[in-house]
Write a structure and sequence with these properties.
Bound molecules: zinc ion
Number of domains: 2
Oligomer: single chain
Largest sheet: 3 strands, mixed
Structural class: alpha+beta
Distance between the termini: 6 Å
Helix content: 25-40%
CATH class of the largest domain: Mainly Alpha
Shape: globular
Strand order of the largest sheet: 4-3-5
CATH architecture of the largest domain: Orthogonal Bundle
Order of helices and strands: HHHHEEEEHEH
Number of strands: 5
Number of helices: 6
Strand content: 5-15%
Radius of gyration: 18 Å
CATH superfamily of the largest domain: Winged helix-like DNA-binding domain superfamily/Winged helix DNA-binding domain
Length: 169
């Protein structure tokens, strides 16, 4: 799933501007890595970014992808979902939004909601520390996984591995 061309260009312009101000060099690899995250609505992991760029950048390493993504995160150009480990996924949508997450295949999509933006934070949260941002994660089974489930039960074949059917997300 692709982000609109206009939005990608806005994100690229913000990246160039921010990098310039921070004195970060705009290397070809950094530009390509950011563009990949900025143009995907999939909230890709570092592995997914590497896989997408490999055909064009055969010498790109996973280590470079990680270092670049964390640099982008430090610059405030991407946010992350999940813990700061290998499984982290990267999000170039800096507008206030919430997430739909498929519990089965991990598909992650953005959505906006004025109602959820206005959710009151319980006072008890202050016991844990300060609050910078709130976002809601709605979990469920995406329509594609639900469809696969129906097809599998129709054919009586339960041997398929749902986790591997993730192409074209
Ligand atoms: Zn799914
Ligand atoms: Zn997002």
């Amino acid at each position: 799933m692709q982000v609109s061309r206009d939005e990608v260009e806005r994100r690229m312009a913000r990246f160039k501007e921010t990098a310039k101000r921070a004195g970060v060099k705009l290397t070809h690899q950094r530009l390509e890595i950011f563009r990949e995250v900025a143009s995907s609505a999939d909230h890709p992991s570092a592995e997914a970014v590497l896989k997408a760029l490999r055909p064009r950048l055969p010498t790109l390493s996973l280590d470079t992808v990680y270092r670049t993504l964390w640099l982008l995160s430090d610059l405030g150009l991407v946010s992350t979902l999940g813990p700061r480990r290998e499984v982290a996924r990267f999000d170039a949508n800096l507008a206030r939004h919430h997430h739909y997450v498929c519990a089965r295949c991990g598909l992650t999509r953005d959505f906006e909601s004025e109602e959820l933006n206005a959710l009151p934070i319980p006072e008890s949260v202050a016991d844990f520390g300060s609050v910078d941002a709130t976002s809601v994660e709605v979990r469920g089974v995406c329509s594609r996984c639900a469809k696969e489930e129906i097809e599998e039960s129709d054919s009586g074949d339960s041997g398929g591995d749902l986790g591997t059917k993730r192409s074209g997300q």
